[in-house]
Every structure is written in structure tokens, then in C-alpha cells.
From TrEMBL:
Belongs to the SusD family. Keywords: Cell outer membrane, Membrane, Signal. Residues 352-500 form the RagB/SusD domain. GO terms for cellular component: cell outer membrane. The keyword RNA-binding does not apply. It is found in: Cell outer membrane. Residues 46-223 form the SusD-like N-terminal domain. This is RagB/SusD family nutrient uptake outer membrane protein. The keyword Membrane applies.
């Protein structure tokens, strides 16, 4: 990175990095000086790379993962933890939660940094500057959507009328903004991504934004807001581009150990390298602990990570319905001296399985480059949208494409009818298996007005009385499906309202 990178000091969005029992302090790499930077294309490119770099900060990527994935039913916490991630998992949120604060701070830091660059590039820019303006619009739209999903209710509840998050635009002082509605934030993100797609003409590697990256995120956004026709439209644009392909066989089984540049299915990922510190502060440290380079024989707990979060019994049971399912490669039995282990803290009868989607990139135990968008999602976005549009066979066609890749039997309309299921039922079942541990499951259920039913051992049972009851049900209308606005923001901005 150049020495004249950009540094923005915004009091309301000051970055506060705390150290917890499971997280080490990491400082952002960006630095922007408004007086000397953003005066030529070289500085603008450097500043843009700095904004991408914020995504790699552990206080963003780790907290974002906990806030999204840990609401789901594919994981089980095997033991109590002092980290705030326990509250994310148990649905016992508090306004001073660490991960909500980290995520809010870092996401708005990206938005403010992107705004500076967007404002510095004229509307009639050409060439590299036009591309860079598009990339920063993409980054802003991505953060707007990510924020509103965490702090605003699902769009399909109230048609977006509920409180969302503040919208910050270029050239406008941050001040003390009020919360925009969920619809307004969705609209802002869509506008940013549509403009970004028009401006970006370079097919960059999947660690940077490009036209197809914007289209892919638009497909996800439209699906979440119930605009099924547009969800299909933008998924088709990504598929038709020919830039990506579904990995097959052994390549698919090793998907998450590949670097993004070597992965033809990844649309956008957050790149980590071997030179970066990937220790107990990495996402993978919560899922896996074992000998580097080995998925088949994980080592004892604590050797390379905490391994406090396991694949849930419910998820493993669903996966085991098809023993040949290649997605068994993304979990690994926890063994000691070849003996499958159980966690007596939550159940003496349930085998423990490590999650390996965030481990063993380039053979390093806790190294991974988290995937944000990939081609399989485009097919299953289409499938869900078509199921809701009444196009059951089209939905099933795309589900079967993913099932065939996984090496499991295809489905027929007659077969799912005989099983008393709908096309949407089987789409959501397939999304669960395909995107397990990728932060999708809770949103898949809640946008479809379906409850989260955890019927398996885990520390979520600590919420129940007596705690021998392992079932926890979270209704889609429950206040807990979203997180509190960070309390420090409420204290410093009288115009912000808190979530109930």
C-alpha cells in the first residue's frame, strides 16, 4: 500500500477495537488524507484498494459471520463462551453486544471511505476512473444491504416500512442521521449496484467488484425483497456471462481450500493470504482444530483453534440422508486416536463434527478467503424465485442441477408431491445443504415467514427451563431476528431509534 493512503476521522463512526477472549486486536490498513489524496488516478486506485482492505479486518469479517451464520440451525455451540458470539447464537442479544458494534463501525467505515472516492470521481469519467467509481458504488451498496439485513427487519415484513439504517451519500456530511426505512435502504443499495454495473467494464478477479458481481448481489437483494422476476433476471445475467462454472467432483470437495483466483465458481470473496496472521482470531478457529493439511484426521481440540462450534445434529442428519453427498467434505468427524468424540457438555450421544469451510486454504489450518457470492447461489436464487412464481418445474430443474453436482438423486414433481412437499420446500432444503455455514440459513427462513426450529443439543438450550429441553423456536416475527443498534450510536445520536 502507498504511504499517501486515505485516513478519515469521523467522530460518530470512530473505530473502536476491543480484545475479547476469542479475538485479537486488528487495526485497519486504510489511511486517507483528504488534503493530499484523491487528486489523481493513482491515488484513487490506492484508496479503493484500501477500502477493500477494510473487509479483511477481523472485526468486520469475523463479526459479520457471527451475526449472520450463528442465527441458523446448521451449527451447535458445544460449550459456553465469554465471547459475545454466544449471544448471537442463543438469540440473547444486548444493545452493547461486541459483534453488532464491530459490524456497524466497520461497514459504515467502508461506506464513508467509498463516498469520498465516489465524490472525487466526476460523473463523466472514463477508463480506469469510471471503473473505480463503479467499484466503490458496489462496495457501498454491499454494505448498505449487509447492514439492513442485520439491523432491519426482513423486507417482506411490512413491505420494507420498518426502520432500517441511515443512508450516507457522497458529498453529504454524516452529522447525526436518522434511520431510513428498510425499503429506502434496499432502494439505495439497488440504485448503487445498477449504476455500478453500468460503470464497470473490466472483468477483474473475484476479489474485486465487476459487472457480474453487482448483478449477483442484485439477484440476492431482489430475492430478499420478494421481487422474484428480477431475482431471476439478474441471476440469469450472471450465468449467461460465462465467467463462472460449477465445480465438479473432487474440485468441488476441495472448494473452500482453494484461493479465490483459482476458483471458477466464486463470484466475490474476501481474500486472505499466507502472509497474513491467521490464528485464533480467524473464523475457522471457532470451527476447526487439527493438523494442518488434513481434513480426514482432525487433531485434538485446541491444537490450532477453539473448535467451540460444530455442525448441528440436525444438519448432519439431513446430510446423511444421502451418504454419497459430496457436501460431507465440508464437515469432518472430531476424533482422538481414531475414536469419534462426543461433547458430554451438551449430549453424551451426539458425535461431534468440525466445520471445514473456513480451514486449510493452502494447507494452513485457519486460513480461508470467505466466499460472499458464488455461482451455485444464482441457480438456487432462480429456483426459489420460480417456485414462488408458480414455475415449479423450472425451480426443480435448478435444484436438480445442484443435486447432480453433489452426487445425489434428482427430484420429480410427482415425487415431491407424494412426499407432501412443495417446490419451495425442496428449494429451501437444498439451500440449507448447499450454503450451510455461509450465513444464509436464517434469512432463507425468515424472508419466507418460516420459523427457525432448533431441535438438537447445544447451548441454546440454556435459554430453556428446564435446560434438558433442547428445542428452541424463533418465529420470523420475533424481535430477536434482528440485532440492536449499537448503544454507543444511540447515546451519541439523538436521531437514532433503537430496535425493540
Amino acid at each position: 500500500m502507498k504511504t499517501n493512503q486515505i485516513k478519515i476521522y469521523i467522530v460518530a463512526l470512530a473505530l473502536i477495537f476491543s480484545v475479547s477472549s476469542c479475538k485479537k486486536e486488528v487495526k485497519p490498513s486504510t489511511a486517507i488524507d483528504d488534503e493530499s489524496a484523491l487528486t489523481n488516478p493513482g491515488d484513487i486506485e490506492t484508496a479503493t484498494i484500501g477500502t477493500y482492505a477494510v473487509l479483511r479486518n477481523a472485526t468486520y469479517v469475523r463479526s459479520a459471520h457471527f451475526l449472520t451464520e450463528y442465527q441458523g440451525d446448521n451449527i451447535a455451540q458445544g460449550q459456553p463462551s465469554s465471547d459475545d458470539l454466544s449471544r448471537c447464537y442463543r438469540y440473547t442479544h444486548i444493545p452493547t453486544g461486541t459483534h453488532g458494534a464491530n459490524f456497524w463501525q466497520q461497514a459504515f467505515y467502508v461506506i464513508v471511505a467509498a463516498n469520498k472516492i465516489i465524490a472525487a470521481i466526476p460523473e463523466n469519467a472514463t477508463g480506469d476512473l469510471k471503473q473505480l467509481k463503479g467499484e466503490n458504488l458496489y462496495l457501498r451498496g454491499m454494505m448498505e444491504f449487509n447492514l439492513v439485513r442485520v439491523f432491519g427487519r426482513p423486507y417482506t415484513q411490512g413491505n420494507g416500512a420498518n426502520p432500517g439504517v441511515p443512508i450516507l451519500k457522497e458529498g453529504v456530511a454524516a452529522g447525526t442521521p436518522a434511520r431510513n426505512t428498510v425499503k429506502e435502504v434496499y432502494d439505495a443499495a439497488i440504485a448503487d449496484l445498477l449504476k455500478a454495473a453500468d460503470l464497470m467494464t473490466v472483468a477483474k478477479q473475484d476479489i474485486f467488484a465487476s459487472k457480474e458481481v453487482a448483478y449477483a448481489l442484485l439477484s440476492r437483494i431482489y430475492l430478499n425483497m420478494g421481487d422474484n422476476a428480477n431475482a431471476v433476471k439478474y441471476a440469469d445475467l450472471v450465468i449467461a456471462s460465462g465467467r463462472y462454472k460449477l465445480l465438479q467432483g473432487g474440485e468441488y470437495q476441495s472448494y473452500f481450500t482453494k484461493t479465490p483466483e483459482a476458483n471458477s465458481e466464486t463470484i466475490f470473496a474476501i481474500r486472505y493470504t499466507k502472509t497474513e496472521d491467521q490464528d485464533f482470531g480467524a473464523i475457522g478457529s471457532m470451527y476447526y482444530s487439527g493438523t494442518p493439511g488434513s481434513l480426514a484426521t482432525p487433531g485434538p481440540q485446541g491444537s490450532t483453534g477453539y473448535a467451540e462450534i460444530y455442525a448441528s445434529q440436525q444438519y448432519v442428519t439431513e446430510l446423511d440422508k444421502n451418504p454419497a453427498d459430496l457436501r460431507h467434505s465440508f464437515i469432518a468427524p472430531y476424533k482422538v486416536n481414531g475414536v469419534q468424540q462426543v461433547n458430554t457438555k451438551i449430549s453424551p450421544n451426539v458425535p461431534m463434527y468440525y466445520v471445514t469451510k473456513y480451514s486449510l486454504q493452502e494447507g494452513i489450518a485457519n486460513l480461508s478467503s470467505p466466499v460472499y457470492l458464488r455461482l451455485a447461489e444464482m441457480y438456487l436464487n432462480k429456483a426459489e424465485a420460480n417456485a414462488k412464481l408458480g414455475n415449479a418445474q423450472l425451480a426443480l430443474d435448478d435444484v436438480n442441477l445442484i443435486r447432480t453436482r453433489a452426487g445425489i438423486p434428482t427430484l420429480t414433481l410427482a415425487g415431491i408431491a407424494a412426499a407432501n412437499k412443495t417446490a419451495l420446500d425442496v428449494v429451501l432444503e437444498e439451500r440449507r445443504l448447499e450454503f450451510a455455514f455461509e450465513g444464509q440459513r436464517a434469512y432463507d427462513l425468515f424472508r419466507n415467514n418460516r420459523p427457525m426450529i432448533r431441535n438438537y443439543p447445544g447451548t441454546h438450550a440454556l435459554n430453556n427451563t428446564p435446560n434438558t429441553n433442547i428445542t428452541q423456536t424463533i418465529l420470523p416475527t420475533d424481535a430477536r431476528v434482528i440485532f440492536y443498534v449499537p448503544q454507543y450510536e444511540i447515546d451519541n445520536n439523538k436521531n437514532l431509534t433503537q430496535n425493540p
